[in-house]
Amino acid sequence: MTDDTWGRVREDLRKAVGKNNYVTWIEPLEFATLENGVAHFRAPTNFIGNWVSRNYGDQIAMHMSRNGTPVQRIEFSVGAAVREALAASSVQPNSVSAGGSNAPSPAPRPQSKGASDMPGAPLDKRFTFDSFVVGKPNELAHAAARRVAEGGPVSFNPLFLYGGVGLGKTHLMHAIAWQLQTDRPDLKVVYLSAEQFMYRFVQALRENGTMQFKEMFRSVDVLMVDDVQFIAGKDGTQEEFFHTFNALVDQHKQIIISADRAPVEIKKLEDRIASRLQSGLVVDLHPTDYELRLGILQHKVDQYRETYPGLVIKDGVLEFLAHRISTNVRVLEGALTKLFAFGSLVGREITLELTQDCLADVLRASDRKVTVEEIQRKVSEHYNMRLSDMIGPKRHRTIARPRQMAMYLSKQLTSRSLPEIGRRFGGRDHTTVMHAVRRIEELKAVDNQIAEDLELLRRMLEA
Ligand SMILES: Nc1ncnc2c1ncn2[C@@H]1O[C@H](COP(=O)(O)OP(=O)(O)OP(=O)(O)O)[C@@H](O)[C@H]1O
């Protein structure tokens, strides 16, 4: 492909994706080679490459083909060329987690005091408190987020939100930002991913702009950093983050952090940083339960009604989905989107049968995988004991026996190793788990009650 052709493709893409998206995502790309139908591009960072690949890959391929260069695949690698345009651009890359694969165009960055010269990512306009469904697994995180969003005196700093993939961390952070923008436009609110923080920092180092970088970050009123686990092991960035963090806390500025796990569990994160991160309020988003999943689906269906008026969804379909898709909310949403699109395309009402056909692959992929935590919960409910006793030190038979059963079930139903199971049971040794497994196997053979209980628990867990 000649430079001319790439020029025309870029022009078409600019029209197709809009100026902001174009400047942020397409302009930094450098066309490298075209071989055997594979177009190779260099992107300034992995982050940009991944994002473009997921969100604009098809469009790039299409416009190349339309301009006489048919391609089957687009590939990205990280190249040395970092376009000045990106550095100079006031529009910064959105976080991957802020959008996911079906992310809409980034909304305009919130306008706030001094926002024009601040780094930060655009907010997703769908991620507000109104669209966040609250249930038991996320009620504490939601309440804490609401409190911070009031913008009153800082009562816990930082607010540290953690939880597994797709459980709503980014959604809550954006919701806080949106509310603050509306109610407290006087505050400088900055949201960005830890990867972007690093990117800005490295860029500042390269351009001798560290002073400016420091001043910029230390002048914000509310700083939100998403997916902070990303900076673990990146020494320079950790150090800078630590100083930024301390400077803001000293000034009583609110900091909100998210990660995929608790601060102490983030490997290669310096101890002093981990301890700083947990010095405020640490709340986790638990895996969704059935009720929450159903609530989210119902909420989404209400929203979809505007796009697909008249589309009928039969009783039992949402319950079926809430039951069968228990991985994460993003997958749940994706399934519903596909179902609605399919239903409206074929002009049929959405029945259970259609759902099973249309979502066969999604349903297969999310066949239930039992976790040690679920096992602990179910077993403690069954024996009417406190969940904390599962991991606690008590050795009385009424507690020790169910604990051994939970260890046994964990070995049977999950792929966790003995040491991993031991760690999840309050840091016990793998020999303790091994002993428990053997003991329960023996008891099962001679004690009908235990055998029945185990069978019942297994069925409940695999349901
Ligand atoms: N309680 C909820 N109510 C409504 N939507 C939700 C809820 N929880 C998650 N979602 C939706 O699920 C999707 C994934 O959420 P989000 O991106 O916030 O997850 P995350 O925890 O940041 O995940 P990651 O670890 O991948 O960054 C989003 O579209 C979000 O709107």
From TrEMBL:
The keyword Ligase does not apply. Residues 155-285 form the AAA+ ATPase domain. It is found in: Cytoplasm. It holds the Pfam family DnaA_N. InterPro entries: AAA+_ATPase, Chromosome_initiator_DnaA, Chromosome_initiator_DnaA-like, Chromosome_initiator_DnaA_CS, DnaA_C, DnaA_dom, DnaA_N_dom, DnaA_N_sf. GO terms for cellular component: cytoplasm; plasma membrane. One of its GO terms (biological process) is DNA replication initiation. Residues 1-88 are annotated as: Domain I, interacts with DnaA modulators. It comes from the Bacteria. One of its GO terms (molecular function) is lipid binding. Residues 91-120 are annotated as: Disordered. Residues 344-463 are annotated as: Domain IV, binds dsDNA. Keywords: ATP-binding, Cytoplasm, DNA replication, DNA-binding, Lipid-binding, Nucleotide-binding. Oligomerizes as a right-handed, spiral filament on DNA at oriC. Plays an essential role in the initiation and regulation of chromosomal replication. ATP-DnaA binds to the origin of replication (oriC) to initiate formation of the DNA replication initiation complex once per cell cycle. Binds the DnaA box (a 9 base pair repeat at the origin) and separates the double-stranded (ds)DNA. Forms a right-handed helical filament on oriC DNA; dsDNA binds to the exterior of the filament while single-stranded (ss)DNA is stabiized in the filament's interior. This is Chromosomal replication initiator protein DnaA. It comes from Aliiruegeria haliotis. The lineage of its organism: Bacteria, Pseudomonadati, Pseudomonadota, Alphaproteobacteria, Rhodobacterales.
